[in-house]
Each structure stands twice: as C-alpha cells, then as structure tokens.
Fold this sequence. Notes:
Blueprint: H1 8-22, E1 39-45, E2 54-60, E3 73-78, E4 84-90, E5 104-111, E6 113-116, E7 122-128, E8 159-163, E9 176-177, H2 184-192, E10 200-204, E11 213-218, E12 230-236
Antiparallel strand pairs: 1-12, 2-4, 3-11, 4-10, 5-12, 6-9, 6-11, 7-8, 7-10
Amino acid sequence: MKIPRSGAATVLAGAAVAAMLSHGSAASLSLTSQAFTPYRTCTISATPATTGAVLDSTVSQGSPTSNLGALTVLTVSSASGVNQRVYLKFDLTRCSPAIPASAIVRLATLRLYMTAVPAACRTIDIFRVPSSWTETGITWNNQPFGTSINNPASATRSGSFAVGTPVGCQNQTAGAYISGGTVTGDVASFVAGGSTNLGWMLRDDAEGSPTTRTATFASKQLGTVAQVPQLVVSYVAVP
Length: 239
C-alpha cells in the first residue's frame, strides 16, 4: 500500500487499530506517528549557453596556457603529452524549491551527452574539486589538481563510468546521455554543508596512453538544449 502524503500515517494507524481490534489483539499494538514526505527532484541544466548555473571547461596538456571554456565540446583524453580533462560545476542554489540542509540526498547523477567514443573501453574518473576555478580562466597549468598526470590517485575518486565501442563497455555509442556518473555522496556533503561545492574534474583513469584515447561530450556552449550537461538530484526533505 503506497501512502503518498503527509498525515497518511494517521490514516494507516486508524486502519491498523480497527483491524487489530476486530481480531482481539489490540493489546499488542504499538504505533508511532510519522510524516511521510515524497521525493523531490532538482535538475540543473546548462541552458542557456550563458547560464551561470553551470560552469564547464576542458583543460589540455598540449595547450597548457590556453583557456578552452568557450569550446562547444568537453574532452577527456589519454595520450602521450596531450592529456585532456574536464571541469564541471553546478550551482545547487538554483534548485527551486531550495534543497534544505537537512534533506536526505538519495541519488545525484551527472548527465553528459557523448558526441565521440574511444575505440577502447576507458574508465573516466570523477573527482571532487578542492579549490576554486573559473570557466573563463582555467587552464592546464593553473587547474586545481596540478599538472602531474594520473593525479589525484584513482582510489580517491568520487565515482566513475566507462566509455568505449567494445562490446560490454558501459557506454558504447555517441548521440546519447551516458549512464553512470553517480556523485550522490558529494552532493549530500554539499547540501549538508560538510564540504564546499567547487564542482568536479573528470579524467581518464590511466592518463598518458601511448595510443590516443578520446571521449567528447557536448558543452553548454553548443547551445543545444537536448544535449546540455545536467546534474539531477533526488532527495527527501526531512520535516
């Protein structure tokens, strides 16, 4: 039996009492009244292209001082001397209604629209960013995680997903949003105030591949509403 609204516990309790009394077992009844709160979902989308609700940029080892925040694609690449990473940030304060600090975050997912797929199955790691950055200022040389490849360590990632054309890879085809990209723990911490929301960095799990492996995703600058980066948060507002 699904109870969709606050106060439904009272109805349920009344039904339970009536049923138990009819069977002569009221003495064993113990009920606690509680408010039932439905799930809410907030989707933060990078639209229009000028929105400040979402920041996105690629940084490229091959162009270490260039800012690539105005490009229409986001690129994660593993290659000798020309690795590329993606930085993303979603402004959770844009949710309406606002997500209360007491909320229980059940699921938070990054949604990226893949436009090109590597020929090998590659793991893309997601890391919580430790310091501030700007869409129009970030470069390979000044990025929060520094210029050393395969840093930070894979073991410290918040989540991951796999992309590639081989059979069995998690995301095999271009022209669709990826599956995976779960960042529930990070968003829960942001909402509760345990950590500051500075976004995420995405990199290949094994940078420096002798064979270039590249995945690309639509950026907000592409301006195509059906392909923009998104963060989808499902939560319960605790009374």
